[in-house]
Amino acid sequence: MQNRPSPIRVHPQQTADIAYRLSRILTDHSTYNAAKRLATDYLGARKIGPDQALFGFWVPGLVDGYLQDKSQKITLELFTPLENIDCRGLKAGKPIRLRFRCDEVQLTAVGDYMVAVVDGVQIGTKDQVGTLYWLRFTDGDQRYIIRDPLVASTPFCIYAPAELFDVAGMLSKRKDMQYFRTWYRTIYPNGSYRAKNIGVHLEIH
User: Fold this and answer.
1) Which of 7, 39, 48, 54 is packed most tightly, with the most Cβ within 10 A?
2) Torsion angle of the four alpha carbons 149, 155, 159, 161, in this order, in degrees rounded to the nearest 10
3) How do residues 105-152 score in pLDDT, each as one tens digit?
4) Where are the beta strands (DSSP E) in 82-197?
5) Residue 45 near residue 133, CB atoms below 8 Å
6) Can you give the pTM of this predicted structure?
């Protein structure tokens, strides 16, 4: 197979713009409200262009913990399939061999958060597996994995890298979208699924 240059690149200007927005949110809002805003708009992995995605992570310890001054040792590791993968053909107990291109890019740290806008990624759909990803922290001869707690898709189980998936594209093709455009807003005017306060809540762990 002929080796081709990887199309994966960090977009420096767009990454800087996102980092600036994050810094403003952290400055202008309380810790709680900033976390809600960031989780909603910037964290996880989301498509923002045909082959472009925003990756955002909460990495506690960057400001005043063990990871302080170590953000340069944390990279975004990307695995892009080099062949079509039929997930319906994957069976437990029947290993198969798949080929991926592995890329590693640097993120920008903003407080306890890290972000990067990356070009050249493969967006996951129902017809193709997207670029897989996780964070890699290298400390001396030790290497650690930091997974995405806001992952949208894990086609190879929760212990494997997460998948960059076009959630917005999937939702736009839902057959029940008419419900969300009409009756849903009547029941939930603010657009959320938040239930009414129930008074008592029991969690069993």
Assistant:
1) 54
2) -70
3) 999 999 999 999 999 999 999 889 999 999 999 998 999 999 999 999
4) 100-106, 108-110, 113-119, 132-139, 142-146, 162-163
5) yes
6) 0.84
